[in-house]
Amino acid sequence: MRTVRRALVAAAASTALIAAACGTSSDDSSSSSEEPGTGGFQPPDLQAKTSVGEGEGQLNILAWPGYAEDGSTDPKVDWVTPFEEETGCNVNVKVFGTSDEAVSLMKTGEYDVVSASGDASLRLIAAGDVEPVNTDLVPNYKDVWPFLKDRPWNTVNGVNYGVPHGWGANLLMWNTDVVKPAPKSWGVVFDGGSKYSGEVTAYDSPIYIADAALYLMKHQPDLGIEDPYALDDDQLAAAVDLLKQQRQNVGEYWSDYLKEIQAFKSGSSVVGTTWQVIVNLAEADAPVKAILPEEGSTGWSDTWMVSANSDHKNCAYMWMNHIISPEANAQVAEWFGEAPANRKACALTANKDHCDIYHAGDAAYASKIHWWTTPIAQCLDGRTDVQCTDYSDWTQAWTEIKG
Amino acid sequence: MHRLLGLDPGLDRDQGLTREEEAELRGRQRWLAAPEPSTMTATTTEREGADGGVLTAARRGKRSVSAFLDRNPRVRLGGLLAAPFFWLGIAYLGALAALFISAFWTTDTFTGDIVRSWTLDNFRTLLNEDVYRTITIRTIWVAALVTVADAIIAFPMAFYMAKIASPRAQKILVVAILMPLWASYLVKAYAWRIMLSEGGVIDWAFNPFGIGSPGYGLTATVLTLGYMWLPFMILPIYAGLERLPNSLMEASSDLGARPARTFRTVVLPMAFPAVVAGSIFTFSLTLGDYIAVRIVGGTNQLLGNVVYDNIGAANNLPFAAAMATVPVVIMLIYLWAVRRTGALENL
Amino acid sequence: MTLSRPTRVVLLLALIVGLAVVYIPLLVVVVNSFNVDATFAWPPDHLTTEWWSKAIDNTGARDAIWTSVKAGLLATLVALILGTLAAFALARFRFFGRDAVSLLVILPIALPGIVTGIALNNAFRTVIGIELGFVTLVIAHATFCIVVVFNNVIARLRRLGGNFEEASMDLGADTFTTFRLVTFPMLRSALLAGGLLAFALSFDEIIVTTFTAGAEIQTLPIWIFNNLFRPNQAPIVNVVGSALIVLSVIPIYLAQRLSGETSGGRL
Q1: I need a labelling partner for A23 at 20 to 30 A (CA). Which of A198, A334, B46, C138 fits?
Q2: List of chain A residues whose C-beta atoms are within 8 Å of the C-beta of residue C131
Q3: CATH class of residue range C62-218+242-267
């Protein structure tokens, strides 16, 4: 009896010890002695491919919704099947709702390419989850607009980590039957939100704090916010207060774009942040309209990156070349509602004004959008006298805001 | 020796049959079932088995293994327990242990990789930040409401089914209760989302009475979760009430108690363990649920959401693990508390 | 029991209201599968069978159902074996740690699914280092199915008692023959009932599955989750749901007939 008991205890203890020893993944990422920042960190030493060979027959894509359409949302919207037929790479698409999901899904190593926004790309690079991309192996890269190349979120120490996909801004969408008069400012979801209490919606990610910071930047200049991603403790606290106030009027937060479409269609949401693709899909069944408000907006500039652990890198390079080819880039830009990365795509869009509407080649306009970036302790606006809040502070703040 | 090992005395085995006993047994068998002539000419080196067949070497081996097992109850027990114990005890418990050990680590905020340095930071955050306490209390409240609501709805139904319905009706009713279990959880949650939306079924049904749908929120969550777990509450109560002998209730009324009194002092105490058994399901299922909340819960967060968001979006396994200890601790306390009511036998 | 007439009527009413509450959402699902409006406005303007015909052609749904069936069968098989072994151990022996083992068996289903899910996910991916896939899915499902089988078998074993086995052994049958010819036939219906319930649990499981199935594996709940809000697919989800509801009568009825207990098996 006693021996049985001892055996059980020994088994349990040894299990625990083994578990502790094997434990979780070892930390072989970049050194943490240097403050990570845009260009201020040392990514792991990974090599880009030197040549592209035969396709491996399979490709797992991790994409923003609308970026890799294969006909299942709308049979006429499909640039994946032509790719499969041309290259023989059988495609599986996984769609994610926020950059955080993208980062954590990439860690599983199960995906080969990812369309990463600026708030995900550097984290992926720093963790060694993506490897440098040899842009010489992507023929269509030369036609990408210069102002999208070699930017801080896709290039580190002169090394390219991906090819630009396209860019756009987060918009304000409202139900024209309910929200009157037509709003011109983000104020309708912040200070003026009580008018539509319970029917306001907002993006369910800590990065949304930047939207609140942007609003404060324009409406409360004495807070001294220069960059919505560089917030010290006081500025973050102000943004958090604003968002807590907003929370009282929010009916639902959304990260699944389809949930937002359904909410606007059923009328449970009437005003809030959106992407153009959502407006396009919701328009069919609900009276909605969207604008870029007068304060400006946050936005994203997305990059296709290759997983360091991928088994299908040839197919990955073929995909990257395909998606920024003029035809496919034009299709995805129109479907999603963003500016394409490839200059030549503008001639191929169904709506000839598409590139003008989205200011496709307008570097000056693009520079006014506050691209999604990961906040870090080293202030992104250059301040050295204070420490800024980093993404984990924002994540915790977000949980607090939602309550 | 057997008593020390705590074996069921009714199962003490003999030390196997002696040769004489075997011969006697064989004789009796032959008398009972006349074997074929061919076997009568079997060589004397082969022994016959009890069922009249030829005892080959393989079957002799099997016999001796069986005899060995008979003589060694501990080996029998070990053999029985080995596989389940390994699966549940070592593998599953080990996985849980590995998870909770990681609660003492942290993640590098930028890369998201886990840093294996021991720290209590996660637990400190859990205890100091108000929001987690709020979420925990909110979750416990919702779980309690769901449990109580289910118990109140389930009990009369189960009572009718167990005591009043005819056997044929019982069978049909049980099928009727179990059918929703097979309908997908997600489909049901989505159906509730539609029902609760503006202009949905609930609005359509109750507007004439002046009430509208509660919309998406905690009320909707309680309604939906209560709905989902109802069969889990009905079945154990039904099984428990079925086991309650009618004679007890009759005796009680013979002794002069009115039905209400009988119910209160005889039926309820005896059915209580079954109710508690059902509550284990409803409570535990609600504590960990994050899907229904996202579908009908509006902006609300429950414990499950925090764990899910941290392991998914925030990629912070250590913090998710730390948060996960909360429902585990709650359930362990609950299980320990109900052990004494005998509910675990009623599952 | 002699209950007064009013009490019986009240109880019957409670039963009817309860059943109504249970079935109305299911009815909504069935009606919506015929609803011409993809956003399910209520009451439906027109009815159409378009979704049903689309659903039959939908390969995604078909593959997902087949994956779920395969995973469910395998998980149930493993659970049957392990659950029966554990039930025998606990019913026929008294030993130290007996209560602990019975708690251990309940644990996977008593702990919230998300805890089991992330624990197994962590164990598979980081501790053992294998990739998630079909095997990990089956292992995870089997873990919480064990308790269902266990409960049914142990209830039956307790009811049977050890006499039959003893008698068989007295008549000279060895342990294996006894199990084959005496015990197993008596357990068969309990195993079937437990197996059916375990299969039902595994078939509808979403939380643990999310964490333990690989990226390419789509069980039915995962497929439903991915398509729930998609405008073109949501009606098909309703069709699948309705089909499940209707078809589920068969296994439940079977479980009832075979278990001999009117409760159709213990949870």
Answers
A1: C138
A2: 110
A3: mainly alpha
